[in-house]
Structure prediction request, 411 residues.
Amino acid sequence: RIVWVSNGLTSCGRCALGVVMPVNTVHSDYEVAAPKWLRARDVLGGEDTLHLRAESYIPRLDSQSDEEYRAYVLRASFFNATSRTLDGFDGLIQRRDPVINVDGVEDSSKEMIGRMMADIDLGGVTLLESARQILREVIGIGRVGTWVDWSADEGRSYWRNFSAENILNWSVGRVRGRTVLTRVVLSEMIQERLADDEFKEVSEERMLVLKLEQGSGESMVYTVESWMKVGGDGDKRWERSSVGVPSRHGVPLDFIPFVFHSSVGKSVRIVRGPLDDLISVNLSHYRIDADMKHGMHFTALPTAWVSGFDKETELRIGASSAWVTEQVGATAGYLEFKGEGLSTLERALEHAEQLMGILGSRLLQVEKRAAEAAETVALKQSQESSVVGKMAICVSGSITTALQMAYWWGT
Prediction:
């Protein structure tokens, strides 16, 4: 138990028109949530990532050429309140290492537990590192999943985490009076080294279909299907490459060993990410900053002007230069911006920063000169602690479930 202190065919059925959907068909809720996940990834990726995808976040001004738009975007600065807030929440939860309770574990199983803790995913990631990865995904994106599996080569169970974007489809059903997972479709990239080049690897997508099927009598059997793309470049289709029936002591499993993690627990349904509102305001701040820097670029420096000078006269600006003309009534001066437009943008930036502070990034707020009442401070702290505390409890519970599955399978 882990606790933080503080175009192939699937058997999923056919639509009303009799068309068989491909294995990489995504859940309807996935289609709705995917743009939000991409937005969160981009914001957490920082200014460089947002500049690369600027068209999605900063609208092009009227009649701007590509070169002008690029300069417009590059002048903007991204104040990454979202990333700082994620780090702050993560730090609050992890200011103490999680407690791993192994009370009741038999002595014969302690070696296996030790191996799992040192390398939970068979890739060198420790249990605590994996748990921290899950926590950051839940805070930043709002969803991640853990698949528990068995390695015949290692002779033990292990798990692998899948991001929200790689959990393409899922379904639930009633089995023996309980609502359980009946299907999960996962996407992953596998790397293969070329036979004729030891230094080059190629990536290929693979689909894993975890599902419950009717066994003998009333029993349910858990199966794992692997799907790969086959065919030529112009005619690739998904084909099932293998089917496995995982078992424990020779008995097939009757459930899907997959756990969803979210800020509300082991919910199968997609919930809003904890930082969604903050991300919206953070992007608004980014767009306002782009307008602000654009305005400053054209108005901050005084511009010289003259009247009554010969058009052919070369005029230089500098302490050692003088403008001389024999034209009667000739004048010269500087244009300076004196409007309220930039002040309005400055106030809009300040307002967005205040909103970001209210929405969770209290680390960004400027300390007030006047001391707040003790009751106000205590209320704020209790609100923050309750949000962070509930998140820690939910993630601890879902990780504990995955750990219990892995331990049960290995004993």
Observations:
- The first helix runs from residue 28 to 45.
- Residues 8 and 238 are 4 Å apart (CA to CA).
- Residues 6-17, 363-370 have pLDDT under 50 and may be disordered.
